[in-house]
Amino acid sequence: MTNPTHNQAKLHEYRERAVELYDLSKGVEERMGNAAESGSIEAARDALGELTLKTREFEDLRKSLTPAEIFLAKYNVEVINDHTVSFVVPRGVAPIEILREAQGLVAERDLIWPTQLERWGKDPKFTTEGTKSERISIDGHVPNSINKDRTEQEAMVGKENLPSLEHLAVAFAVNWIATGEQLFGWHNKSRSWSYMVRAAGGALYFPSYGLRVVDISDDNSNDHVAVSSRAPGIKKTR
After folding, report:
1. Element containing residue 149 per DSSP (H, E)
2. By C-alpha distance, which of 77, 100, 238, 41 is closest to 171?
3. Phi-psi region of 126 (alpha: psi -120 to 50; beta: other; left: phi over 0)
4. How far apart are CA 139 and CA 235, in angstroms?
5. Sign (positive/negative) of CA torsion 127, 79, 115, 201?
6. How far apart are CA 75 and CA 137, in angstroms?
7. DSSP alpha helices (H): ranges in 112-164?
8. Are 140 and 175 in contact (CB under 8 A)?
9. Which positions of the chain have pLDDT values less than 70?
């Protein structure tokens, strides 16, 4: 279930206020420029006063949120169901930044295996910043996808729908911050073994010491190997 400590209405308000403040700041820049051209100091003063007030209101709202809630608002995280999550990777942000932020928010354990996080920090797929903001929805364990090899799983979901390994890792991380639960499902919860989940170019696994890449052959069709999929348009069921 979604973590009840996260006030969804407040997060929605925070995102709306952030957009409003950004738009207002751009409008104020224009009004200040017009004021400079016209010599109307009063108009410039009014514009700056409005921006100052809105900024103060936004900061007051920000102070009422926890670090985890600010993270969820920043990446516009929406939990769809217990194996599907939607989020935004903003322009100019690399996947590794989101993963490091998530790791820093989890105090009771390593969300990501530290050695894996270090390796990803040297991987261009994880360190390259996006050139545009992108909304991504990922099903971290497609139902009925076990007991199939990679070819069969790709045929099931459509090879073009497999998410990248870095986006699957981000989906896992933001879902944990939102819910306190992992995205892949437990193959053996008593041993803290998640399902191994294939993505484009590899697979991920969540054992007791944190999220990591797992090496599984393409012909492996065991009951602990599932597949992920990009999932646009899935209706929210929570």
Report:
1. none
2. 77
3. alpha
4. 12
5. negative
6. 12
7. 114-120, 124-127, 150-157
8. yes
9. 1-5, 21-22, 24, 26-41, 43-44, 47, 57-58, 60-62, 233-238
Give the separation between CA 212 and CA 205, rounded to whole angstroms: 6
pTM for this predicted structure:
0.82
Residue type, 79: V
- Write out pLDDT tens, residues 42-82: 766 776 777 777 777 667 666 778 899 999 999 999 999 99
Residue 120 CA to residue 114 CA, distance in Å, equals 10
Phi/psi at 226 (nearest 5 deg)?
-110, -175
Q: Give dist(CA 89, CA 94) in Å, integer.
A: 8
Residue type, 87: F
User: What residue spans define the domains of the chain?
Assistant: 8-70, 76-230
Question: Which tens digit of pLDDT belongs to each residue from 146-161?
Answer: 999 999 999 999 999 9
* Residue at 80: amino acid letter: I
21's tokens: 């403040």
Residue type, 120: W
